[in-house]
Design goal:
With about 80 residues, the chain is mainly α. The chain has a domain of about 50 residues. Helix content is about 85%, strand content about 0%. The chain has 2 helices and no strands. The two termini are about 25 Å apart. The relative contact order is 0.15.
Length: about 80
């Protein structure tokens, strides 16, 4: 149950990260006085990196949770045998 709650929070945070990345990319292309010259390929790359970072964050946080659950199950099986 705890792992699923963590996954839901991570998905919400990942969606927020991608949304902020997209908003900043759109705002930087709209503001002309900064002379940023951001192309559509760079916008796609930024959003792609934001998705990769959020997926890696979810992976880093869910693997220890799953292994902890496995250890607890093995302990319980050893107790009852």
């Amino acid at each position: 149950m705890l792992c699923r709650w963590l996954a839901i929070r991570l998905e919400i945070m990942a969606a927020f990260i991608v949304f902020l990345t997209a908003i900043f990319c759109v705002m930087s292309t709209e503001i002309d006085y900064l002379k940023t010259h951001i192309t559509s390929s760079l916008v796609g790359l930024a959003i792609s990196y934001a998705l990769n970072v959020s997926c890696l964050l979810a992976l880093i946080l869910t693997i220890p949770m799953t292994s902890d659950d496995d250890v607890n199950v093995n302990t319980a099986v050893g107790y009852f045998v």
